[in-house]
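Researcher: Here's a chain I'd like modeled. Treat it as a single chain, no partners, no ligands.
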Amino acid sequence: SNLLQTIPQCSNSSKLEILRLSYNNIELCSNDCIYLKHIIELDLDHNQIQYIPNEFLHCIKLQSLNLSFNQFRKFPQIILQLRSLNKFILNNLYLEDLRSINLFEKYFYRTLNILDLSHNNFNRNLHELTVLKALTYLDLSHNQLSELDQDFKLMTCLKILKLNQNKF
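Model: Modeled as a single isolated chain. Structure tokens:
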């Protein structure tokens, strides 16, 4: 645990692939993103991030991203354009819906394998997620779900589905 407010410039190394900056005070500004071009795994959980700047799209090698326990007001849609992403953790944010998100299918319906949306406030059937055909792990536990879309049964690659602590 540190008190970093920005991403350190040392992360600009072309050899650096994994960067863990959990439990800081990072807000993530545009300039921070230029240091992340070569990062494959990025943990920014437990920070003060409220939005993701467009420059984040320069993280073209990013495969694993953890943004849990931050200050998002709504789902950070820009993340859906990271085409190499296969693991996305976005829990404990109190997000309520994914309604406006039709980019799942457009960008990474074939690449995303692990998605953790636990400990939010989703209360709809989350049909938007059923296009993620490569998904093997989906955690929707600790939400407000009372039903799942019937198309979830078409997610044939799904091996682990966590639904505990919902309203079923």
